[in-house]
Design a protein that fits this description.
By secondary structure, the protein is α/β, with parallel strands linked by helices. The protein has 23 helices and 29 strands. The structure holds zinc ion (ZN) (2 copies).
């Protein structure tokens, strides 16, 4: 790992132990040579991992004895660029407390300086052009250090010793304010620029500013008109916006914050943390309409910190700002000054640029705390490109991921390196971002793939991309098998496990849509032991935006015809209902699906919570919210049965009947939603029980987007553990399709390893 202050740490540790030798950043990792008494060398090696600075991650220590050279001093050697290069690249890290203190101290030469950093903090992945990680290989190469900065950079005792992005107001990057339609500003101090930004925000304006990994759009989250205007301009109707606040006190005034959530807010990755909003929170309704959670993050750079300081001096209320990705709807986040002014022209009233180039776009990360543990939802800034240790051979593999929430993954030397979140591969811009990331990561990690792993869905752009690559061994991986393998890879599980893969959509080996799967799986193969009983999905993809379609399908499947109650007539316009009913009855333009995601949609529509949605998963989020507002400790599950074999069908028609009866009896939505969640947990427990009895498996991996639902995840974990299962869920990569590429990579590596083994 480079750029995390490891060499100065080793230097100081060796000197403290009175050892001679040197430390060197080599492309294969850090190389340390020490010379001294055997006992002292032993103490040094023991201390090496245990006292390491916060950003250091030591994957492995290998030792070799060499002849005594008679060195008397310890030194840091320049980087050695020779050899077959492979070094891990650190992620971008939020500003550290010491640097914040520097920028807040009027006597410090970095007072108010937005680009302050040190070996413990600041940009890394977003500014690195190539390895070995040195200033010349970053976008900071354009700035020559002044004498003061150079002195710090060369002083092993200094916090900025070998801090590659080291900078100060004299020699480093600076802010540039542009207000379209206004005369060009003279160069201004950061303070003056951010004061002006504060005024624009206070007057309800929208500001685009260049953050760590890309542009962010900001407006005052307490002004309804400003937030609604941002939604209108960004073409984003209901998907929640994240907010940024100055500190934990403000976060707690708006949301409930547990100790684990508090720690996550302050973690050096500085992700957006999904928190439950207080009913009386002083935030515009349009921040996260109809959603009890709000994504909150704290300032992650000195620039954000400085802005909040200025706002606090000048505003009456503590500022809460929308802080959302600078892009148009689902396109990649914008990183370039000119690109920002062009693409965000219709959105932002002002632009805060700076002249440090962002080389790699990295969006803000999103996590949720479930059962006291961080669960990634979007893995990007602060986390990428941290590797996952696979320990599965030396194969170099490219895994292309899925279509939604795409990430790619490369493997090398036993590591899997998942990319940052790239987005939905639905437009040209995101596909370009995918190709750009592949090219850059291949260079950075010196990976030359010999095999490519891809999803079986022929319509995915990632699959089509994989199949266009020449001369590579092709390994197609079933979507839900990849989900389970990603969870196994995180926990380094070998052998066969019970895999519960529940999500919205995945292409099955029988060319139907899967998504409520119980697999007996290892890395090589899987058996589809059980599934949710398939229903017909009418009209393909539009089914995702219109939960009422799948609700009608469940009604038809359960009752043989759609009941004539006026309630069911109100789900959509009469002519559309007729068209969909006819499609379902005649099985025209329909496809069978076992999707658990669609089951959530159906139930949300059946109980009148939501008939159409503006983003995938919205109905499920609302169902979870309704269930969590149910006050009773536990809700009685509805009934279900099992039918068929190979695979077994989980037949939920009894539950649908009971839900309809509950709706007829005017039962409240929260109670029905809570009982629905209890039913799903009971289904999972029952099927896993059967699988244990029949297959002698007792480890369960829970994966797929449905397990972002805290009630489902916590309920399943608790029930299964109480029944003696070992249960694994996601901590490193998302349970949703963002985690697929890791699973594909693990499967491909194991298959290649297996082939070699069979040849021997
Ligand atoms: Zn720092
Ligand atoms: Zn300087």
């Amino acid at each position: 790992m480079q750029g995390v202050g490891f060499r100065p740490y080793v230097y100081n540790l060796a000197r403290r132990h009175g050892l001679a030798g040197f430390v060197l950043n080599s492309p294969r990792g850090v190389f340390i040579e020490v010379e001294g008494a055997a006992k002292t060398v032993e103490a040094f090696v023991t201390a090496l991992p245990s006292e390491a600075p916060p950003l250091v991650r030591i994957a492995e220590i290998r030792r070799t004895a060499i002849p005594v050279l008679g060195d008397s001093a310890f030194s840091i050697h320049e980087s050695d660029a020779a050899g077959s290069a492979f070094a891990l690249v650190p992620p971008d890290i939020c500003v550290c407390d010491a640097c914040v203190a520097d920028t807040r101290d009027p006597a410090n030469r970095r007072y108010d300086y937005p680009f302050t950093n040190c070996t413990n903090c600041g940009p890394r992945y977003s500014i690195i052009l190539d390895v070995p990680y040195d200033r010349t290989m970053t976008t900071m190469a354009e700035f020559a250090m002044c004498e003061d900065c150079l002195r710090e950079y060369r002083d092993p005792e200094n916090r900025r010793f070998h801090a590659q992005p080291n900078a100060c107001p004299v020699c480093g990057p600076r802010l540039i304010l542009v207000e379209p339609g206004q005369p060009a500003h003279e160069p201004q101090t950061s303070h003056a620029i951010l004061q002006r930004v504060g005024d624009i925000l206070r007057d309800g304006g929208i500001v685009a500013w260049k953050g760590l990994g890309g542009y962010q759009l900001a407006c005052d989250a307490r002004q309804p008109a400003a937030v609604e205007e941002l939604r209108r301009r960004k073409h984003r109707s209901e998907k929640p916006f994240a907010i940024m606040v100055a500190d934990a006190e403000v976060a707690e005034s708006l949301c409930f914050v547990s100790p684990e959530e508090h720690a996550a807010l302050f973690s050096r990755e500085r992700p957006i943390v999904l928190l439950r909003r207080r009913p009386d929170a002083d935030l515009a309704e349009a921040v996260s309409p109809g959603n009890p959670a709000t994504g909150v993050m704290l300032p992650c750079t000195p620039m954000h910190d400085l802005l909040f300081r200025i706002l606090r001096e000048r505003w009456d209320a503590d500022p809460a700002l929308i802080m959302t990705s600078g892009n148009i709807s689902e396109e990649p986040i914008v990183i370039d000054n000119a690109e920002a002014e062009q693409r965000l022209a219709g959105i932002a009233d002002a632009f805060v640029h700076h002249n440090r180039r962002i080389h790699t776009r990295v969006d803000d990360s999103v996590i949720r705390i479930v059962s006291g543990q961080a669960m990634p939802i979007r893995r990007a800034r602060g986390y990428a490109p941290q590797p996952v240790w696979l320990g599965r051979g030396e194969s170099e593999v490219l895994a292309c991921g899925a279509q939604q929430k795409n990430t790619l993954c490369l493997t090398r030397a036993g590591f899997a390196i998942p990319s940052q979140h790239l987005g939905d591969l639905e437009n040209f811009e995101t596909l370009t971002f995918f190709e750009e990331t592949l090219e850059r990561m291949s260079r950075l990690f010196h990976v030359t793939p010999t095999a490519v792993a891809y999803d079986l869905h022929p319509g995915y752009l990632s699959t089509q991309f994989a199949l266009r690559l020449p001369n590579l061994r092709r390994i197609g991986v079933q979507h839900h098998h990849a989900h389970i393998a990603s969870c196994m890879a995180e926990h380094q599980l070998d052998g066969r496990v019970i895999g519960v893969a529940w999500d919205g959509t995945g292409f099955g080996t029988d060319s139907t849509i899967w998504g409520g799967e119980f697999l007996a799986a290892d890395y090589i193969a899987f058996d589809r032991y059980a599934r949710l009983r398939p229903v017909l999905l009418a009209g393909g993809d539009s089914g995702v935006r219109e939960p009422w379609r799948v609700a009608r399908s469940y009604l038809l499947d359960t009752f043989g015809s759609i009941p004539s109650d006026p309630r069911w007539a109100a789900m959509a316009a009469p002519d559309r209902l007729r068209v969909v009913d006819t499609m379902l009855q005649r099985r025209v333009n329909t496809i069978p699906t076992s999707s658990a995601g669609r089951l959530f949609d159906a139930v949300a529509s059946l109980i009148g919570l939501r008939h159409t949605v503006s983003f995938e998963g919205q109905a499920a989020i609302m169902l979870e919210a309704a269930a969590s507002s149910y006050s009773a400790v536990s809700a009685t599950p509805y009934d279900f049965t099992f039918t068929g074999s190979g695979p077994i069908d989980v037949d939920l028609r009894p539950m649908i009947r009971q839900i309809v009866a509950d709706v007829d009896a005017s039962q409240l939505q929260p109670r029905i939603a809570a009982r629905f969640h209890s039913t799903l947990v009971a289904v999972i427990a029952a099927v896993c029980g059967h699988m244990r009895d029949e297959l002698q498996l007792s480890r369960v991996c829970l994966s797929g987007g449905c397990f972002q639902n805290a009630i489902l995840l916590e309920g399943s974990i608790k029930t299964l553990r109480a029944d003696g299962f070992d249960v694994f869920s996601h901590r490193e990569v998302p349970a949703n399709d963002g985690g697929i590429s890791l699973g594909q990579a693990a499967i491909a590596c194991e298959q290649l390893r297996n082939e070699v083994r069979n040849q021997i």
